[in-house]
Specification:
337 residues; alpha/beta; nine-stranded mixed β-sheet; 12% strand
C-alpha cells in the first residue's frame, strides 16, 4: 500500500469514528477481556462491524466456494431494501464498519447502489467485494457518488488461462475493464473514494505470477494490492502454493492450519453477519448459517445479539473452539492485544 492509500484508509475510519462508536468499542473490548480471563461471558456493547449479504447468487463457479460449487445449503435470493433499511436502523449509531458481501456476487443486486447510498446516510465505512463482471461506467459513477468507501476486485491471475482456472466462467479482460471504469469514475467526480483494492488469492497454479500481478496493479492504478492466502475445503479441487509464506496450511494438501485453533476469537465480540434472508450468524465462516442465533426479520438484532444462543456460542469459543466445525478452517483467534 502506498503512503497516500494508507492516509486515505486511515481518514476514512477517522471521519466515521464518533464518540458514541468509540465508547461502544471500549465496552466490547472490556467485555471480551473479562470473558477471556475467566469471568462470565457477557457482551456490553453492540456490533461495531457487520457484514450484510445483498445476495447469495453468483455468476461464477469457483471450485473452493460453496456458492460456486453449488453446495450452499441455504436458500438463494436477494435482500429486500426494506429489510436492509430496518437492519441499519437497528445497528446504528454504534455500527462503524459495514461490509456488503458474504456469499454471492453483490453487484448482481439491482439496488446495490441504493444500498450504499442508504448506508452513507449513517456515516459508515462501507466496503464490498466483487468479481467485477456486473460493473459498468454507469454503476461505477453511482457507487462513487453514493459514498462507497472501499471496493475489492478479485483478480487471481494475470492471464485468462490462469485467472479462469479458479474464477470458472469469468473473463479476465472484463474484470480489468471494471477496474478501469471505477478509476475513471473517481477521476470524473474528483473523488479519492472508493479505495480500489485488487485481491490476489495465491494457489499453486498462480504463485509464480506474483511479480506480474504487482505490475498489473500499478498499471491499472489501483490503490492497494492484497495478496491473500486461500481457504481450501474438502469439496474443492485447487492446491495450496508450494511457498509456505502464501499458505495458511502446514501441509501441501491444505488440510491442517499452521496455527492450532485457539480457544478465543475477538471477531465474535466486535462483529456479526446477516444473510440476505435475515439470519444473524457468528461470522462469514458460517457459510450455511447453521449456527445462526435467529432471524432479524422476526426478532430484534439486540434480542439475538445479547440472547442465550449467542452467549452460549461464545462460551463454547472459550472452552472448546476446535469442536465447532466452522472454526477448524479459520486462521483467526489470536490475542486481541
Amino acid at each position: 500500500m502506498t503512503l497516500k492509500a494508507f492516509i486515505l484508509e486511515a481518514w476514512a475510519l477517522i471521519r466515521v469514528l464518533t464518540l458514541r462508536r468509540q465508547l461502544n468499542a471500549f465496552r466490547l473490548v472490556y467485555s471480551y477481556l473479562r470473558a477471556h480471563y475467566g469471568h462470565t461471558v457477557q457482551i456490553t456493547g453492540k456490533p461495531m462491524a457487520c457484514a450484510i449479504e445483498p445476495t447469495s447468487i453468483c455468476n461464477l463457479k469457483c471450485p473452493e466456494c460453496p456458492t460456486g460449487a453449488n453446495l450452499l445449503k441455504r436458500p438463494r435470493g436477494m435482500i429486500q431494501l426494506s429489510d436492509f433499511s430496518n437492519m441499519l436502523k437497528q445497528l446504528t449509531p454504534e455500527l462503524l464498519y459495514l461490509n456488503l458481501y458474504i456469499q454471492g456476487e453483490p453487484l448482481m443486486h439491482p439496488d446495490f447502489g441504493a444500498m450504499v447510498k442508504e448506508a452513507a446516510r449513517y456515516r459508515l465505512y462501507t466496503s464490498t467485494s466483487t468479481n467485477g463482471h456486473y460493473m459498468n461506467p454507469s454503476l461505477a459513477d453511482q457507487l462513487v457518488q453514493s459514498g462507497l468507501t472501499r471496493i475489492i476486485f478479485s483478480v487471481d491471475g494475470t492471464s485468462q488461462e490462469s485467472y479462469g482456472l479458479y474464477r470458472v466462467g469469468g473473463s479476465f479482460n472484463r474484470v480489468k475493464q471494471s477496474i478501469i471504469d471505477v478509476v475513471r469514475a473517481k477521476k470524473r467526480a474528483r473523488s479519492a473514494y472508493p479505495l480500489i483494492v485488487m485481491q490476489f488469492l495465491v494457489f499453486r497454479h498462480n504463485e509464480h505470477e506474483l511479480p506480474q500481478i504487482k505490475r498489473l496493479a500499478r498499471r491499472l492504478s489501483v490503490d492497494k494490492l492484497e495478496v491473500k492466502t486461500a481457504q481450501f475445503n474438502s469439496f474443492g479441487t485447487m492446491r495450496p502454493p508450494l511457498n509456505a509464506r502464501y499458505s495458511r496450511y502446514s501441509d501441501e494438501l491444505g488440510r491442517f492450519l499452521k496455527t492450532p485453533v485457539q480457544n478465543r476469537c475477538w471477531r465474535q465480540w466486535h462483529s456479526t453477519t446477516i444473510t440476505w434472508d435475515g439470519r444473524l450468524s457468528p461470522c462469514c465462516y458460517d457459510k450455511d448459517a447453521e449456527h445462526a442465533f435467529g432471524n432479524v426479520n422476526k426478532h430484534s438484532i439486540d434480542e439475538l445479539w445479547y440472547g442465550d444462543k449467542s452467549l452460549s456460542f461464545k462460551q463454547q469459543i472459550f472452552s472448546q473452539r476446535n469442536s465447532i466445525d466452522m472454526c477448524t478452517n479459520c486462521p483467526e483467534g489470536k490475542h486481541l492485544f
